[in-house]
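Ligand-bound model needed. zinc ion.
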Amino acid sequence: MDKRARRRLRGLLAELDAGERNRLTRRAAKLHKTALRAMTGDARRPELQDFLLRLLDEQEEAAACFAAAPDVAAAPPAGVYGSRRGTVVAVTAGACVVQAGGDTLDAALPADLRRRQQSGLAVGDEVLLEPFGEGQRVTAVLPRRSLLTRADPHDARRARAIAANVDIVVVVVATKAPPLHPRLIDRYLVAVERSGARAALVANKVDLLDDDERRDVRARLGPYRELGVPVIDCSAADGEGIEELRATLAGATCVFVGQSGVGKSSLLNALHATAAAKTGAVRAGDGRGRHTTSASSLYELPGGVRVIDTPGIRQFSVDDADAVTLADGFAEFAPYATRCRYRDCTHAHEPGCAVKAAVDDGAIARARYASYRKLLGGDGDDPQLGDGAENTG
Ligand code: GDP
Ligand code: ZN
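Prediction:
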């Protein structure tokens, strides 16, 4: 768990009532004990695996527990019992491709993980591997620092994992062709907030704008700058902003999302620049097991930018926004929301709503509030999100 996630969890813990907090703390202490016991000695190995798998199932609660017992989270059990640690760079049916050190390896999944593969494993996951037959298999998925999901098409209440451990979701919009729709940005930001990742905003195709249009675009994206979201004017066509984008993303694992035609592929190509930097096809290493030929969904661009690009990424969106979590996606509401007359205020029609008052005072951007209301009401007249491409992963 990184510092930011821990800080956020501490905040969440502080908001709980005392009884709930005590319950969690007791549970954290118990988990802590189990973890320590499980990590000492080979005989305890099945317990360790159990523990890690349970973490996966109860990730959020366990993470909150860890916030209460922070020293446990600091010690992910990588390398114990001679197992290898690696990053999932592609997922196939019943198996995955893992990059471990310089090696890219096919790894089988245990039955338990195979059963709930769509929620239990995603590109970007950190896993432990053990030798298995001729090759290796995944023994555990380590706790995630973020998770991008989309609704299961067969069961909207269930979430499918799209990508794990993403640091920055790059929301790409075109400033012209297709026209700018800030409401789409707001929808993405809600989903990004929920995932635990950060957002960056790319305003692409600025080469098509005259000076007046540029000023207009800058004004319309102003509220996002004020929110602390990096906003980068780019042109994949003439290279403007590409180095600024590279610098913003350096050292991070990213995904690029946005409507079809806004220029995601073109931007990635521009970031590729001179080097042919796909690392999915890295050479064989120490000869442990069969090496893969599968295409990687996680690769590195020049400048240390890691990109996850799976077909499912394009379905990343908000599809089940209830009022409480939706408001969480509008960070600028938070300071006012606590002053609403009603504790469960949805900031829509309630009297004494401090958020609405802040909109009237100009402290909250009216366009953002309008987006919120649209999302809340599910009016459904939003432009379509994503490409509508089916997820094949
Ligand atoms: P994607 O669907 O988001 O991956 O978008 P593409 O990268 O395929 O781009 C869609 C279209 O927009 C293509 O015809 C690109 O050539 C064009 N395009 C992309 N970026 C720019 C840009 O910065 N300026 C201009 N003028 N056209 C662009
Ligand atoms: Zn309110």
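The longest helix spans residues 18-38.
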